[in-house]
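Researcher: Re-running this chain for the archive, since the previous output was lost when a drive failed. Same request as before.
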Amino acid sequence: MKSKFTAALFILIATLDFVNAKLSVESMTPQQADRPYAQIILKDGKSFWISAEQLNANGTAATFFLLQEMNCISRGKTKKIKTPDTYMILAPLSESIRQNTLVTGVNFHGQWSVIQLSANLSSVRQAQPLIDMGFVWASATSRTGYFIAGTSVDKRPTLIYLSADLKNKKTLSQANDHNGEVSNVFESKGRIFSLFNRYLRNQDANTSPRAELREYSTTGAPVSRTPLNGMAATGMALKDGGIAISYWIGKQLFIEKRGANLSALWSTKLHQRSGVASRKGYLLETGSHIAWVGANDDKLLIHRLAQDGKSIQTSIDTKTNIGAPIPDIYSVHSSGDDIHVRGVARRSTDPSGQVTEFCFTEQPDS
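Model: Regenerated structure tokens:
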């Protein structure tokens, strides 16, 4: 793993003044650039930012997972976990609510694997390869095991079920699934949902791009399939048993809410895609609001909506010159009414220079 080190460490606090928005960023120059990172959500509801980094251990270079609390103002000690491999990419999100924490990563040989951590996050419990995976976007747990969402090496949407001991595996994709991806998977009151996205390819000339919400049992048995209007969809479970889903129709971003019976309750138009923009973004529930977090025009952008779909506020970073991460993935956490956004990106004023590790905090105006 190539490393870039700097002796300088600085903290920049910038308050961004918007109408109906409170957005601030704590930014620092990291000691190691371009390290992979992800977010893990644990059984107790705590959320950690996890990164992979090479450190010197007893005179020998070794790879460690470094865990920090997602809260921007946290000053807790960083936890280090030695890993059996060197990772270049980590899957963006792991919701390990009902099982031991699972981290998914790809090494420098291009091999994906799942890494199960011990219950106290002190060590790696075991690791298993994920054969034929091209990319992993997310994982979630049920009372019996794990669900891994992504795309295969032949660019087809793939959802995998793994038993809790990682010994039993089955692929849940359908034989007639065309090119695309499973953008995420999540549990809602014992039900498992995933977002299948089909993208247009030359060999799929007779098909059209679209997205589909699929429900599974806790062991991976298919339950239902619900077509959606747009594409590049992602979703999340809401506390009231409903589901929030965002998707694109052309260059227009929409968000909709569905009830526990999967019926559509409302749909709200958000922003038009411009410049460097997040293809999927991140949805979360914060306080009484539903939020979409992503990039547009190479800037961090956060929408807050009420539970009835009415817009509360939109926050845009227009002053820090921190561009969107590549790929445009943020790690996002809700703490009360506040939203914490972590990531690594280069500054637009020095696009060829060193990356900046950042953590934004966004608050409701009132």
